[in-house]
Amino acid sequence: xxxxxxxxxxxxxxxxxxxxxxxxxxxLHPEAKKTIWAVGGGKGGTGKSFISASLAIExxxxxxxxxxxxxxxxxxxxxxxxxxxxxxxDLGDYVNxxxxxxxxxxxxxxxxxxxxxxxxxxxxxxxxxxxxxxxxFIRQIKTFDAKxxxxxxxxxxxxxxxxxxxxxxxxxxxxxPEPTSIENTYxxxxxxxxxxxxxxxxxxKIEEFKxxxxxxxxxxxxxxxxxxxxxxxYNKSQARLxxxxxxxxxxxxxxxxxxxxxxxxxxxxxAHVVKKYLLVDLNFLGIVPFDERVPQSIQNFxxxxxxxxxxxxxxxxxxxxxxxxxxxxxxxF
Length: 333
Known about the structure:
Layout: H1 18-23, E1 35-41, H2 48-63, E2 66-71, H3 78-81, H4 91-95, E3 106-108, E4 114-117, H5 124-128, H6 131-142, E5 148-155, H7 159-167, E6 172-175, H8 179-203, H9 210-218, H10 224-232, H11 236-248, E7 252-258, H12 263-278, E8 283-289, H13 293-299, H14 304-307, H15 312-329
Parallel strand pairs: 1-5, 1-6, 2-4, 2-5, 6-7, 7-8
Antiparallel strand pairs: 3-4
């Protein structure tokens, strides 16, 4: 029996209480009280922090009440891109209990309507962000007093990175028009899928599917259609519950450092491949052209949108920000 290619309505059992969600280790169905965008990618060097800072600045100029959070556990530099040079407290102090609330470490920025939670340069931060502190961090992000939140997360398939990405609604993947970047982006999406399905299996105690998940998804490149068709032959209701959980996951894609307009086709092709083999609706937001003035603006502690507002890259970022806001406004809260 083939999997129907449509979204099933949310199963009643999936509408869990806050406490129940907390047991699963990550909040897979965020409330729609605010918009949280986590910006990440499969590998470093894609320009995700540049995209995070630029989107935060543009969204703040449009609407105000934006908070940028630097949760890149391996190399925090969002403060540099926003021209914030000093901070009394940072995210490391929050994790190490020197500050009990995120609001205690929030900083002003040079941009009206935009605040910053600075990342930490302390490498012990990663070791100290255990399961319970991560849950506390996620809970406070979801209840933070801001209309829009941009989270600059790390790269790679670490649990913390994936959980921050899955938390958002939606996450934004930044990819370059290079084979290694595209490949790593594909595997990052696959890792997110694996994490989501495993969390649902743990929560609903669907033990018999875990081995098949590892064999067919974790350890090889079989299509997700094959995996779900296998599950359907065992238990249709559980297979459809997991399928619905996967369909909630709808990340976005930005192709940064584009060489030409031809990269529009490349971005669309990436979304098509992800849909075909991973069953995920990847929303391609557009391209940001390569601009050699970006490093210059970083050295000057002046964002590109401020120094060169009419540049093709700045105009592309403004267009992408418009799409993000329009997508949010179309969601029936």
